[in-house]
Amino acid sequence: MATMLWKSLLFPLIFALAIAPVPVPSHALSPRQSQPSITIAPTATEIQYHGGPLLTTPNTVNIYLIWYGAFSRNDQTSVTDFLASFTLSNGLVPHQPTVATWWKTIETYKDKAGNSVSRTVKLVKQIGDIYSLGKNIKRVQIANYVRNKIETKVLPLDSTGIYLVLTAKDVIVERFCMGSCGFHNSISLSHAKSRIIYAHVGNPSVQCPGFCAWPFSLPAYGPPGRALVAPNGVGSDGMVMNIATILAGAATNPFNNGYFQGDPLAPLEAVSACPGIFGEGAYPGYPGNLKVDRLSKASYNAYGVNGRKFLLPAIWDLTSSKCRVIL
């Protein structure tokens, strides 16, 4: 537990159905053309199923994306390319592993009827908002904001989707950078019996890059070392890592009675149970062995659309009770 406590000081652990961010040197590996292999990293955490529903239907988890504030084009295309990569066929990508490969571990999570979590993620609709709530926002405001967008039909009602609010680098959100890099939760609507799932992730490039974009930026206090080069930019890759963590948590623990370990109010979920682990051989302060782009020197472990490279966190493997990383 001392190791977990130490990690929690460096990497965002997810609270209130929140998501902890996902994790320095690494050595260069040449891109692999064959089917990816999987390696298992040990941890002391144990994820348990608490009997609640998961996001199992339909076959796709629909994402409704809200860009709150001013984002660079690079930030936007990095995130949308990441989300598009979930549906990318392995046969259409020249290298392995892919973002879709990473999600396959999440598919092994099943509900009490034996139904697996939906096999892919898809961006269905996105809208923008230039600071209608100001630049200092409470979490309850995010919930009410999403509810309003659905009730006014700006966004459709989808009880099996995720309404994801991304906030720009100059927006302060309650508890963001203060023990959390984002969160997911659920709310009810006045005209519907079902609950809908919403989530938040912030751009950490200015407020807390060493906390919510590690290992691409170093924490103010921590072990010595060099930050890794981000393939898409510190803010962009920080958001991608945390979006990945939140999507995994929301799909496997949407209503706080699915898969998690520990306190239901501060659960360790499918990805947050493996903080700081991205590659084989990871240990506190070291993300593990990663691929390194020969030209840019950027570190990554998964391929996406449009030639994108991403760094994605380890996922808790239910069969082995260990953290699984893609190679």
TrEMBL record:
Its main location: secreted. Belongs to the EXORDIUM family. GO terms for cellular component: apoplast. This is Uncharacterized protein. Pfam families: Phi_1. Keywords: Apoplast, Secreted, Signal. It is found in: Secreted, Extracellular space, Apoplast. Residues 1-16 form the signal peptide.
